[in-house]
Amino acid sequence: ASKRKRTPLLLSIFHLIPVSTAKNGVSSKSRKRIMPDPVTEPPVTDPVYEALLYCNIPSVAERSMEGHAPHHFKLVSVHVFIRHGDRYPLYVIPKTKRPEIDCTLVANRKPYHPKLEAFVSHMSKGSGASFESPLNSLPLYPNHPLCEMGELTQTGVVQHLQNGQLLRDIYLKKHKLLPNDWSADQLYLETTGKSRTLQSGLALLYGFLPDFDWKKIYFRHQPSALFCSGTCYCPVRNQYLEKEQRRQYLLRLKNSQLEKTYGEMAKIVDVPTKQLRAANPIDSMLCHLCHNVSFPCTRNGCVDMEHFKVIKTHQIEDERERREKKLYLGYSLLGAHPILNQTIGRMQRATEGRKEELFALYSAHDVTLSPVLSALGLSEARFPRFAARLIFELWQDREKPNEHSVRILYNGVDVTFHTSFCQDHHKRSPKPMCPLENLVRFVKRDMFVALGGSSTNYYDACHREGF
């Protein structure tokens, strides 16, 4: 019966996916994923197409631009920010049956990865792994027959095994970033205290490292989703966030179709509209969509694709307005400053020839990556999908060893020259990459200039009066 019930959703999805024509056997979709292309992008954003990109269902290995550089450049260090992989919802639609998704890892079930079985057996031997508290109390891989709320799914593990494999082929096999006898201090690993971020980080590392030696794997715990460590207190950042949330609220009030849709869905599940909205139904509906499970029904009717499209379309409009109104940008500049500052510190130490922390991995959330993308000026970048990756590469010019450059890649696409600190660079310079000093100047000074006011450092910008 469950098989029969599952078909309607799939059929309705496939009528809506724009088919991209292949050029020379290569799908043009790989470019569409991140930066809208005026020629190929559908004129009206298709909410189901966007949602499926967000699901990031593992399929053929994607083409990526990581590690591309002229031959006289040497890769010095790599800094990887990931969003955890596909997860079970964090919210339940009231009075409906939870979607039945199995969070045990089964090697011959889709989505499949050749390293999945070895990953499970390796993780089950790692119970004595020493991580910074409280990470040492978290399970190292998902293992519930009915997923727990927020738990990583098999899809989420496979997404990051794939990410790791991809980065391994480029950074280790091609560029020899880590020596064969690499040591623990050449990795810097940090994660929030959620099992889904720790497990995503472990899956990526398992795909990435040539030998996953538990003695060399040490994850630090980051209590803040902004990865701001000891510098999280920032009143002005919170003021920007409050204004941004107010903007979101007002936009929602204006959308009568959205209100009507929430009303219809609330009737179906027989709760007040307010309660349904508080249960954030889009989170659960995305899970149904990503896992091809039909939307819930009650004796009053079914939640359906039309409801989903209205809510998802509103989300897309909200993102569009968010970019225009710039309140989120203010929040992002202050929110992303600590982690960007830490990253340039690590890069600067690498330029001095230090050999530790050559590969940094931050396993994080959409609310971590989104402010970083916004702060960098990547306003056209799509909202971080499951298992999104944002990578900073540091390169040295062998012909001029004192010159270092950076590349920035989002889901495999080179977005260096879309950033606010490097978008004018290639108009003035023939160099194929962005000078490291551009990024340093941006983090140390221009991020504060962009906020207006006279602050020239993080503390003053966070405590500015009269904002």
Automatic annotation (TrEMBL):
InterPro entries: His_Pase_clade-2, His_PPase_superfam, Histidine_acid_phosphatase. The keyword Cell cycle does not apply. The lineage of its organism: Eukaryota, Metazoa, Chordata, Craniata, Vertebrata. It comes from Macaca mulatta (Rhesus macaque). The keyword Nucleus does not apply. CDD domains: HP_HAP_like. One of its GO terms (cellular component) is Golgi membrane. It catalyses: 3-O-[beta-D-GlcA-(1->3)-beta-D-Gal-(1->3)-beta-D-Gal-(1->4)-beta-D-2-O-P-Xyl]-L-seryl-[protein] + H2O = 3-O-(beta-D-GlcA-(1->3)-beta-D-Gal-(1->3)-beta-D-Gal-(1->4)-beta-D-Xyl)-L-seryl-[protein] + phosphate. This is 2-phosphoxylose phosphatase 1. Belongs to the histidine acid phosphatase family. Interacts with B3GAT3; the interaction increases the 2-phosphoxylose phosphatase activity of PXYLP1 during completion of linkage region formation in a B3GAT3-mediated manner.
